[in-house]
Amino acid sequence: xxxxxxxxxxxxxxxxxxxxxxxxxxxxxxxxxxxxxxxxxxxxxxxxxxxxxxxxxxxxxxxxxxxxxxxxxxxxxxxxxxxxxxxxxxxxxxxxxxxxxxxxxxxxxxxxxxxxxxxxxxxxxxxxxxxxxxxxxxxxxxxxxxxxxxxxxxxxxxxxxxxxxxxxxxxxxxxxxxxxxxxxxxxxxxxxxxxxxxxxxxxxxxxxxxxxxxxxxxxxxxxxxxxxxxxxxxxxxxxxxxxxxxxxxxxxxxxxxxxxxxxxxxxxxxxxxxxxxxxxxxxxxxxxxxxxxxxxxxxxxxxxxxxxxxxxxxxxxxxxxxxxxxxxxxxxxxxxxxxxxxxxxxxxxxxxxxx
Length: 355
Fold this sequence. Notes:
This protein has 355 residues and is mainly beta. The protein folds into 3 domains: 13-149, no CATH class; 153-246, Sandwich (Immunoglobulin-like), CATH 2.60.40; 247-336, Ferric Hydroxamate Uptake Protein, Chain A, domain 1 (Beta Complex), CATH 2.170.130. It is built from 2 helices and 29 strands. Strands 11, 14, 16, 17, 18, 20, 23, 25, 26, 27 and 29 form an 11-stranded mixed sheet that branches. The longest helix has 9 residues, at 40-48. The chain starts with 12 loop residues before the first strand and ends in a 19-residue tail after the last strand. The relative contact order is 0.09.
């Protein structure tokens, strides 16, 4: 008989439980087990963890479990099985099910209307649907009670900036948001709700979900995605971080001595009347070109691009990489066109106005 490593991943499988067709993922369950032969406890516990009979790495058809563990199941004694639900495991012999175990498909108020699925004996095939009274007749005793799977796992989701909301399962709240009482092996919604929204003075543009912190491996490139909650043994919470880019408002303008910020300017090869403002995503560039022009009989020739008092470039055509909302200003040097018959009575130190 072969034993399968608990760290492999395989294809998805399916099984029927609780009257529904469920999709089973392929990670090994955290409950201590081996894969050698079919036993009643392995089959029932595997179903509780959303595993299938014959598909995926962690199959229930050869899942060998010696006892239904307390750390994953709440135990309810009483052979009348009062309060049983679909998905509970009926136990014989003791609270570990060491005599027998069966998985409830259809709950009931008496043995006669409870339907279960089981592996009747070691190495046997599964029985998909059988009345509990038939199982009791074969086993030769009433059940000890039943075990109910603990919903003890949680998902924590956060944005990579310290603000905004996130959505986990059916809950939307402030980042970071933790949603608990979740079941191992089940699928839950995860949504970066701030995609396209303005938060903290920036429009946020979703990039990826990361598993773990913002530097963790990429989990999904979709803002609205799903999580197969399958943490390793001893891990009861999974963390996901939404990575965003900021969107910057970038303004381009001219500066002409004695005139101000008028004139024309080119942004992304399109000519505009200055100033012109565009949106630029973080890490991306935007091209702008200063245009030499004549205003009020003064020929203005480009000199340099500045951001505030800092020179950015002396190239007329330039690719800018903004790191925040900002304004880039094209500065010019002016030279009057040829004129004749000009007299001036402007006091010394004042600007000369030519008309």
